[in-house]
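>> received
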Amino acid sequence: MRLRNTLATYGTVARSLHWIIVLGIIAQYFLAEAEESIRTTAAGMSSMDWHMSLGISLLALAFVRVLWRTLDRTPAWPATMPGYERFLATVVHLALYALLFAVPISGWVLASVEGESLSMFGWFDLPALGASGSEQREHLVEEVHEVLFNLLLVLALVHVVAALKHHFMDRDNVLRRMFPGMR
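>> returned
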């Protein structure tokens, strides 16, 4: 497989970044839900420590993904795809990219407001993005973080449904060009 995209399909780099980020988002959901049940893992980190470290890693991957997308061409839309679908696809993709930045940054702000250090897998601490705040401020930032994540999930579901529609109804290559092992 080619590293770079072609006009017909995504390359290995774009596919890998896409699927690593997808798996990371899924892991983030389960780590956040496990907050109450898993206190410390064998590595000495709590589920929330893993959640925060993975969140910052996903933020870094989002930067890499956007950089790669600006440096590499994007496969062409199918010729049969109506203009309104191209517009909606563009809007959803832009919103997904924006949320890939907004969700981890809001989590970083939340850790800062709660007065928690944000350690990257125990290797080093990141600086706070603001001073710790009141319980009311903590609650507000936590709500913003959760709403942004839920919006990310909804848009990801729309993205998946659209890809499945293209594959099963339109019978074009939109899903195959990003799905591993498909051409």
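>> The chain has four helices and two strands.
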